[in-house]
Amino acid sequence: MPGRNIVKRYDTNSYYHVYNRGVEKRVIFFDDQDYAVFVALLKRYLDTGTDDGSRGRPYIDVKDGVEVMSFCLMPNHFHLLLYQIELGAITKLMRAICSSYATYFNNKYSRVGALFQGKFRAVPILNKDYLHYISRYIHRNPINYLSWEWSSLRYWLGDKTASWLNPDRINDMDKERYLDFIQNDEDFINSIEEISEITFDIA
């Protein structure tokens, strides 16, 4: 369906599930370095301690405009749960990250052309009660989700911290409660059915 989940305008003080995949569903992360570069780009544009690029030019200023609550990187796609504070911040962030990562990827693998399948997709989360369910959906993308390195699950469990990641905006569970929540298979399946109006077309 053309244009599905492509948001024209992102409202302030609003939550969005943002995602994209490789063109023709191709792999966009081949090894740990690729995953690490994408995470480093999140830090570059969102960490308040990061100011300038290697040439002394400032990076785009979205540090106060958007927050990341959760993320997961998979071989051919990625998921982000974002909160927009300032108008236009999500678009600036995603354009910068996707452009920078595509440049890195094409240089590394000697390829040309688009890396991602068009503009990134986004679903507004209008019901705040769904936020924990969306975070669980994101964190459970990998089969081995409890040991998957390239997601924010360890940050949610308090095993790791990052200044550019803010799970506390929506997470009010301690480690044990969230572990129980994320591992509840029956509730997970039921929640996917309950939020079926939110379309996930990453396959």
Task: Give a brief outline of the structure.
The protein has helices at 32-46, 89-108, 131-139, 153-156, 175-182, 185-194, and strands spanning 14-21, 66-74, 77-84, 121-125.
How is the secondary structure organized here?
Elements (H helix, E strand, L loop, with lengths): L13 E8 L10 H15 L19 E9 L2 E8 L4 H20 L12 E5 L5 H9 L13 H4 L18 H8 L2 H10 L9
Antiparallel strand pairs: 1-3, 1-4, 2-3
Major pleated sheet: 4 strands, antiparallel
User: For this structure, what is the CATH class?
Assistant: Alpha Beta
SS-derived structural category: alpha+beta
- Taking Cα atoms only, what radius of gyration do you get, to the nearest Å? 16 Å
Account of the protein in words:
This protein has 203 residues and is an alpha+beta fold. It has one domain: Alpha-Beta Plaits. It has 6 helices and 4 strands, in the order βαββαβαααα. A 4-stranded antiparallel β-sheet has the order 2-3-1-4. α1 packs antiparallel against α2. The chain is globular and about 45 Å long. The mean pLDDT is 89.
List its traits.
203 residues, alpha+beta, Alpha-Beta Plaits, 4-stranded antiparallel β-sheet, 6 helices, 33% helix, globular
